[in-house]
């Protein structure tokens, strides 16, 4: 991996973060001049009043410094955002937005990482088997089952899962990430409780995303079948398992890894909605509350942190990619 | 295109002509069942949405029109919700609204996306590079999250304003798909030939590339409509949709707000969901079918 490639990718990451931050700065000012006044006028029309509202207004006035010139406001805003300092929340005043998000982020990352990895591994394996001439017939039955599932948004799939497995059959909890009253600690019982609660939300993501990876992998496998190195491997008398894993799958995987980076944004947005459906206490949960309370600054903070997470995940994948595919040599154009 | 070819023919020669055309269509349909299935599903939904308002009483969607939480019966085939509204009527009224969001936003996204896609694929140098850069950045930022920021500012959205907001962020997928197609097409022999004949860049795009891209443009449009509906329902489930319009997504939002799932009112959330799922599957099948139409080699592959 050349230094130029590294710098270009990190530069791209910083650019994305900067654009996201600037959008957050511009949109409220574009909508109606004064973001604080607009915010509180809106709260009043909705009949929502938090105690100690004057205090909140004063805190925000001081923070945003609206009497200063726009350029100065912009740079002080960027400086704050760079340190993940989003100020106090309105609906949870005086709780700090950065801290509220930090409490929620691990839940989302845990749920999302687990379900993405499971879906990616299972989907690619199934897709590879589907595109492999020697695989058994029952694998073919998966296509008509998983293909429609991949067309359904995860959060809607979640509704069916809750209704079937939690409400009707009573096998799983109706929502939340742990039993009420459970002590949050690093103990096996609590870990088991969390795992038990996460099965349905994770399943709704896995079921729908697996089909997507499966279809892509099948296409790649079929294309790979006719390649010279496949015929060569067969002619050398290598075992079918070795050909399958090291020759067919290894090469078909590469575009899938690129695909992972591209779909990550969609997966994170979908899982935010899954959390709303399952009352799962991650980023989606607090976002839903922020929207209901029109806590605009909290919404901004959540959106910004999620955008940064997606960009960071893509950066990491891009930096790993040259190690996965040794054929790629990044040269400066 | 078949209509345009058949039009100048005389009445006598037209009937065998159209007949053979029809047979061609049917035989193509046999080879591409995905496209036919998708078109059938979407046609049924659209016809249902167009006809039903004449059959179903619109007053049934007013709150307290009937008793609350009735399970499906002969009077209310899909039951009623906790506002006392007839679910069948709600679905009938809501489906065209959701489709409308998808069509407006999908069409706008197609225009923006394909314009940028043609520029990015066709032009080298600073123009192409800068458009590609913008697309890459926009692709990286999850559109739904930015939509949440925008929609929470514009609190009172309507179906139309929501469609426009969505269109502003739904184009990068189209740009990428069209851009990569144009990139490969511009290497074909007919492009340099057109250039030697003295055609300008825009002329080549419109007269040479565009006609060849039609199936891709169709597939991109369908994909854009699907994305737009996905975004719309996502915003609606979060409570950022048009509060006074009964779109399918808003119906799910209200059912969620009133805990319909854990109260066992399955007809409230399941009915809009079935229509949404059919919409997505129909669009998905059409888009796959169009891919196959554009690239028949896929047929042998999969």
Give unreliable regions of chain B as ranges.
1-12
**Structure summary, number of beta strands of chain A:** 0
Please state roughly what percent of the residues of chain B sit in beta strands, choosing from under 5%, 5-15%, 15-25%, 25-35%, 35-45% or over 45%. under 5%
Order of helices and strands of chain A: HHHHHHHHHHHH
Order of helices and strands of chain B: HHHHHHHHHHHHH
* Quaternary status: heterodimer
Q: What's the end-to-end separation of chain A, in Å?
A: 15 Å
Number of strands of chain B: 0
* Radius of gyration of chain B (Å): 23 Å
Helical residues, percent of chain A: over 70%
Number of helices of chain A: 12
Structural class of chain A: mainly alpha
Descriptive notes:
The complex is a heterodimer of chains A (333) and B (302). Chain A has 12 helices and no strands. Chain A is an all-alpha fold. In chain A, helix 5 crosses helix 8, helix 5 runs antiparallel to helix 10 and helix 7 crosses helix 10. With 302 residues, chain B is mainly alpha-helical. Chain B is built from 13 helices and no strands. The interface between A and B is large, with 51 and 41 residues.
């Amino acid at each position: 991996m050349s230094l130029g490639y590294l710098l270009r990718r990190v530069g791209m990451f910083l650019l994305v973060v900067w654009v996201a931050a600037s959008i957050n700065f511009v949109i409220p000012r574009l909508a109606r001049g004064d973001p604080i006044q607009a915010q509180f006028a809106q709260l009043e029309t909705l009949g929502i009043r938090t105690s100690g509202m004057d205090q909140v207004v004063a805190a925000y006035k001081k923070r945003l410094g609206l009497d200063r010139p726009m350029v100065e406001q912009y740079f002080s805003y960027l400086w704050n955002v760079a340190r993940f300092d989003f100020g106090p929340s309105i609906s949870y005043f005086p709780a700090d937005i950065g801290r509220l998000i930090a409490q929620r982020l691990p839940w989302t990352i845990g749920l999302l990482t687990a379900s993405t990895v499971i879906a990616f591994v299972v989907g690619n394996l199934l897709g590879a088997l589907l595109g492999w001439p020697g695989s058994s017939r029952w694998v073919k039955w998966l296509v008509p089952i998983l293909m429609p599932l991949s067309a359904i948004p995860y959060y809607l799939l979640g509704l069916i899962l809750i209704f079937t497995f939690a409400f009707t059959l009573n096998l799983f909890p109706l929502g939340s990430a742990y039993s009420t009253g459970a002590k949050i600690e690093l103990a096996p019982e609590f870990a088991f409780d969390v795992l038990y609660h996460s099965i349905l939300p994770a399943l709704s993501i896995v079921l729908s995303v697996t089909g997507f990876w499966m279809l892509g992998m099948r296409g790649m496998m079929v294309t790979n079948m006719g390649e010279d190195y496949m015929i060569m491997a067969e002619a050398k008398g290598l075992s079918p398992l070795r050909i399958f894993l090291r020759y067919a799958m290894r090469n078909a995987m590469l575009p899938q890894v690129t695909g992972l980076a591209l779909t990550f944004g969609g997966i994170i947005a979908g899982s935010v909605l899954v959390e709303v459906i399952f009352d799962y206490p991650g980023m989606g949960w607090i976002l839903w509350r922020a929207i209901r309370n029109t806590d605009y600054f909290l919404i901004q903070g959540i959106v910004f942190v999620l955008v940064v997470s997606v960009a960071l995940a893509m950066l990491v994948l891009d930096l790993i990619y040259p190690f996965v595919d040794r054929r790629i040599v990044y040269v400066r154009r | 295109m078949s209509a345009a070819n058949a039009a100048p023919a005389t009445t006598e020669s037209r009937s065998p002509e159209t007949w053979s055309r029809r047979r061609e269509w049917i035989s193509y349909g046999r080879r591409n069942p995905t496209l036919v299935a998708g078109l059938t599903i979407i046609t049924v939904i659209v016809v249902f949405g167009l006809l039903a308002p004449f059959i179903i009483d619109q007053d049934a969607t007013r709150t307290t029109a009937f008793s609350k939480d009735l399970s499906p019966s002969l009077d209310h085939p899909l039951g009623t919700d906790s506002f006392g509204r007839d679910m069948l009527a709600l679905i009938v009224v809501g489906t065209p609204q959701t489709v409308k969001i998808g069509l407006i936003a999908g069409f706008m996204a197609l225009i923006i996306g394909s314009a940028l896609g043609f520029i990015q694929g066709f032009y080298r140098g600073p123009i192409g590079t800068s458009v590609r850069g913008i697309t890459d950045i926009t692709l990286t930022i999850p559109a739904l999250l930015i939509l949440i920021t925008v929609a929470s500012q514009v609190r009172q959205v309507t179906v139309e304003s929501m469609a426009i907001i969505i269109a502003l962020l739904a184009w990068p997928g189209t740009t990428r798909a069209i851009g990569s197609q144009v990139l490969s097409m511009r290497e074909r022999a007919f492009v340099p030939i057109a250039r030697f004949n003295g055609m300008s860049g825009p002329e080549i795009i419109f007269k040479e590339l565009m006609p060849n891209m039609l199936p891709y443009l169709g597939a991109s449009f369908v994909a854009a409509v699907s994305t737009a509906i996905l975004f719309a329902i996502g915003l609606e489930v979060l409570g950022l949709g048009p509060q006074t319009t009964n779109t399918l997504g808003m119906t799910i939002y209200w059912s969620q707000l009133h805990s319909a799932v854990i109260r066992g009112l399955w007809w409230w959330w399941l009915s809009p969901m079935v229509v949404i799922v059919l919409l997505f599957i129909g669009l998905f099948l059409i888009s796959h079918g169009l891919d196959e139409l554009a690239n028949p080699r896929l047929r042998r592959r999969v």
